[in-house]
């Protein structure tokens, strides 16, 4: 109950921050309405198609990494799983843990839960790596257009460095297999004293399957290039979707602005999205666009339309498939 209240409070803080920006510049709100009124709806149709393609790309990622573990599931089921997992992660901001747990339900019974969770964790890891790979591209495009925006570039690089450091820490912990297994056993025994429903055998089986998948990956590193490629394609498609929203408003901008705004918004949400699913991403995107010289009215309009389309395209079918795969 306390976590739920904290989530609500922090969500309101994120929304309030956006509201402050709007109130301080309320004189430009009329411009936002004029921009939305003149949207090019045929571009919106293209955005819907491209956005669905990004979920299909996630399905291709799942298929490629599951094949490393020795499983070959249908792409349609994996596409549905991508939508359902996105829905779960949005309504339950738990640093991706909820989505990882739910994916195991989608892939059950063919794929053991330990390997299903590893599949989703690797999606987060490879997507974060893809974001870091795209970062120099965005910076280069900005410099070529003489729009250095040192504050944005500096903040993004520092944040990217923090993500990289966090990644090394996590990998280091996972590699200490013996210590991690002992830690899990100790924690399970402690928790069993308070929660009798915890099954120590199941926990150990989960850890065993997790490391079975982990060793399969580390022994076939070259095969990780395929899921990594699909992770990059996914990020490129998402940035392309964001850029299409500018085109829907009749605005042709430097692609570097779209790249940096999308990347920084995602980097911010990696840290803030642990407990807040609404407001953090939007605030990061609007703030980056403003810092890169985008007029406030356009920054708010583009961010709002992008997020509304993103949620309308992903959440309703995600909810349907979420219900479909419930036990």
List its traits.
327 residues, 81% helix, globular, disordered N terminus
What is the secondary structure topology, with strand pairs?
Layout: H1 2-24, H2 29-37, H3 41-68, H4 75-91, H5 97-107, H6 113-144, H7 150-175, H8 177-194, H9 200-218, H10 225-248, H11 255-272, H12 280-291, H13 296-324
Helix pairs in contact: 2-13, 3-4, 3-6, 3-10, 3-13, 4-5, 4-13, 5-6, 6-7, 6-9, 6-10, 6-11, 7-11, 8-9, 10-11, 10-13, 11-12, 12-13
Structure in words:
The protein has 327 residues and is mostly helical. The chain has one domain (38-324). The protein contains 13 helices and no strands. The longest helix is centred in the middle third of the chain and has 32 residues, at 113-144. The radius of gyration is 21 Å and the shape is globular. It starts with a helix and ends with a helix. 35% of the residues are buried.
Helix content: over 70%
Give the class from helix and strand content and strand pairing: mainly alpha
The end-to-end distance, rounded to whole angstroms, is 24 Å
Residue-averaged pLDDT: 77
Q: Specify the overall morphology.
A: globular
Q: How many discrete structural domains?
A: 1
Q: Which band does the percent of strand residues land in?
A: under 5%
Helical run tally: 13
* Rg measurement, Å: 21 Å
Described by strand count, sense and barrel closure, the largest sheet is: none
How would you classify the quaternary structure?
Answer: single chain
> Would you report the number of β strands?
0
Secondary-structure element sequence?
HHHHHHHHHHHHH
Could you name the ranges where pLDDT drops below 50 across 5 or more consecutive residues? 1-11
């Amino acid at each position: 109950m306390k976590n739920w209240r904290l989530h609500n409070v922090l969500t309101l803080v994120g929304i309030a921050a956006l509201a402050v920006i709007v109130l301080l510049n309320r004189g430009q709100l009329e411009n936002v309405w004029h921009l939305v009124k003149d949207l090019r709806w045929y571009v919106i149709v293209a955005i819907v198609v491209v956005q669905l393609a990004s979920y299909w790309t996630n399905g291709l990622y799942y298929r490629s990494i599951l094949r490393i573990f020795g499983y070959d599931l249908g792409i349609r089921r994996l596409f549905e799983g991508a939508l359902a997992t996105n829905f779960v992660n949005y309504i339950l901001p738990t640093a991706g843990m909820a989505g990882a747990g739910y994916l195991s339900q989608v892939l059950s019974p063919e794929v053991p839960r330990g390997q299903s969770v590893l599949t989703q964790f690797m999606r987060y890891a490879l997507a974060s790596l893809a974001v870091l790979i795209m970062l120099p591209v965005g910076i280069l495009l900005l410099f070529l257009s003489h729009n250095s925006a040192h504050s944005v570039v500096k903040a993004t690089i520092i944040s990217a460095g923090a993500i990289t450091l966090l990644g090394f820490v996590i990998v280091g912990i996972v590699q200490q297999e013996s210590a991690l297994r002992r830690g899990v056993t100790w924690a399970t025994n402690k928790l069993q004293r308070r929660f009798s429903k915890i099954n120590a055998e199941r926990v150990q089986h989960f850890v065993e399957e997790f490391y079975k998948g982990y060793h399969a990956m580390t022994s076939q590193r070259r095969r990780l290039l395929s899921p990594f490629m699909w992770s990059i394609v996914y990020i490129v498609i998402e940035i392309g979707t964001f850029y299409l929203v500018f085109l829907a408003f009749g605005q042709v901008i430097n692609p570097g602005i779209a790249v940096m705004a999308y990347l920084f918004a995602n980097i911010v949400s990696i840290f803030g999205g642990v407990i807040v699913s609404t407001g953090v991403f939007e605030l990061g995107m609007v703030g980056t666009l403003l810092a890169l010289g985008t007029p406030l009215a356009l920054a708010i309009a583009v961010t709002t339309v992008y997020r509304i389309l993103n949620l309308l395209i992903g959440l309703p079918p995600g909810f349907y498939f979420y219900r479909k795969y419930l036990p």
